[in-house]
Amino acid sequence: MMKATPLASEGAMTHSRKTTAGLPFRVITAMSLLATVAMMTACGSDGDEELSCQSGLIFGDLVITELLANPKGADREHEWIEIYNATSNPVDLKGVRLMRARADGSGSKTYKLPSLIIEAGDWIVLGNRDNDETTLPAFVDHGYGKKLGDMGNSVPKTEPGEPAALGAGKLSLKCNSTVVDEVIFGAAKDGVSWQLSSLKNDATANDSAANWCLSTAEHTSADTTKYEDFKGTPGAANRPCSVAGKCLDNGEPRLPKTPQKGEVLINEVMFNPIGSETSQEWIELVAKADVDLNGLEFGKVST
Predict the structure, then answer these.
(1) pTM to 2 decimals?
(2) What does the pLDDT read at residue 44?
(3) Residue 25: which of 14, 45, 39 has the closest Cα?
(4) Burial label, 166 (beta-carbon count in 10 A; 0-12, 13-18, 19+)
(5) CA dihedral angle for residue 118, residue 122, residue 128, residue 133, rounded to 10 degrees
(6) In 3D, which of 179, 158, 150 has the Cα closest to residue 64?
């Protein structure tokens, strides 16, 4: 929004990455039953203390904020997923399950994460490449290899009369039985990531497709033998997602305030610069009211 400025006033109108190191039983006696229950409670919901999630995460502590489901060329070794730590403390991902499935939940595959630390307010990037630091690109913190298969690139077609598919795929994060975050994503554009708007950076907001958009940020690969160039911001803050025909105020879309006659004035013009006029002419405007310049047109007319 262009802020009102007194006509007489002068002046122009106008991540850090913190990466890291990624039952049935038979009752014999009352005493043995109590011992067994105590052991199961201590070991966590999956019965394996070494592999279970010990961080006590609840819904919204982690947020899936960006994903590249359709890289240029082969999907294998070039897909990635970005996860944000929405808490005020470092989080250890040990035992957190990353799950990939079709949008309806079928065909689910799971990868249980090792000990990986995400600092508060930071991101971690996981890629479908073997976890070998000599082959991982710099922006990928941990590789899960082939464990999840490839993410969906397109929305499946349905037969007439059948309900439309929900999307191209689903990603979930679970800490034992607790769903920490879950998203359904749409058809992926070649070499462009899906990103959650930086203005809607939480696990409830990312349930709405309206808060997702295709990234416009260019990412140039330092080594194209590891990764092709793409659009996305892995491991860093996303850009806000725009809403067609509207302005964003603190993340909330609103209709633009169109300037009325007399609210925007031509205040100064440089029409004859020294030397070439190409790219050296300019026009200064001054606002007499708070207005948006969306769709405002100006040009020269014959006299």
Answers:
(1) 0.68
(2) 36
(3) 39
(4) middle
(5) -70
(6) 179
